[in-house]
Design goal:
The protein is α+β, with helices and mostly antiparallel strands. The protein has 2 domains: 187 residues, BirA Bifunctional Protein, domain 2, CATH 3.30.930.10; 42 residues, SH3 type barrels. The strands form 3 sheets. A 7-stranded mixed beta sheet has the order 1-2-5-9-8-7-6. Helix 2 packs across helix 4 and helix 2 packs across helix 5. It is globular. Bound molecules: biotin. Biotin binds next to helix 1, strand 3, strand 5, strand 8 and strand 9.
Length: 251
């Protein structure tokens, strides 16, 4: 059903389509353990029955209506300490696709939720396998809400819900893989400052005053950036705090 994009060098040159599976991330991780699984291999399904999300959450979508895929990357050039740059790279690629389709401002909610009008349209789950201090394999799982209009979670949306149109999943798949490759090549070519600056420019609620919760305490703060380890940087009245993913909640 899904074709390899014509315009990429390696991303999506090998497409593994399975009509149904538990989780494309799990399947891609298994595949990646075989040394013959080339970088750029994509596992895609029409019906994911046990999708996994960040922080141990589940990812539940209707069959046949969305893009549900996992991409195998081999970013051996990235140190473990730089792994957040993969989140930056992939978030920007998804942002690029959605901005082209919707012609609207797309925001990235740290670390890598993609939002339109404050509603989540895409979730990304990156799982790394390490070798020493480098990342041997990264499995990049992407769930993009496309043609589903019913039964979306309260703060979620889809392309179809936003535009009242249906989209060709294969065309969108090709475009997405192309944008991922472009952004990944930027990362490989050491264009990290550019990627980071674009990520921050798209960051949801950056430089705005909002309430947050950490350690069961509510506080006012202002996101000022993301540090080199990928932690969210929040300035409060008298200090600058750095948070890991599970440590802070936006209110
Ligand atoms: C999140 O926002 O919590 C991340 C969701 C990631 C969902 C995708 S769907 C394809 C891939 N396979 C999975 O099991 N999860 C990711």
């Amino acid at each position: 059903m899904y074709k390899s994009p014509a315009n990429t060098l390696f991303v999506g040159k090998n497409v593994v389509f399975v009509p149904e599976c538990h989780s494309t991330n799990t399947l891609a991780t298994q595949l990646s353990q075989n040394p013959s699984a080339s970088e750029g291999t994509v596992v895609i399904t029409s019906n994911q029955t046990a999708g996994r999300g960040q922080r141990g959450n589940t990812w539940v979508v209707e069959p046949n209506r969305n893009l549900t895929l996992s991409l195998i990357l081999k970013p051996g050039f990235l140190m473990l300490s730089e792994q957040f740059m993969l989140n930056v790279t992939v978030s920007l690629a998804v942002r690029d696709v959605l901005a082209e389709v919707l012609h609207e401002a797309i925001h990235i909610k740290w670390p890598n939720d993609i939002l339109v009008h404050e509603m989540k349209i895409c979730g990304i789950l990156i799982e790394n396998q390490l070798r020493g201090k480098t990342i041997e394999t990264a499995v990049v799982g992407i769930g993009l809400n496309v043609n589903q209009v019913d039964s979306l979670p309260v703060k979620a949306t889809s392309l179809a819900k936003l535009t009242n149109q249906q989209y060709n999943l294969n065309d969108l798949f090709s475009t997405l893989l192309g944008r991922i490759e472009t952004r990944y090549l930027q990362l490989k070519q050491q264009k990290r400052q550019i990627l980071k600056a674009e990520y921050l420019a798209a960051l949801y609620r950056i430089n705005e005053d909002h309430q947050f919760e950490a350690n069961n305490q509510v506080f006012n703060g202002r996101i000022t950036g993301v540090d080199a380890s990928g932690r969210l940087v929040v300035a409060t009245g008298n200090e600058v705090r750095h948070f890991e993913v599970k440590e802070v909640r936006y209110l």
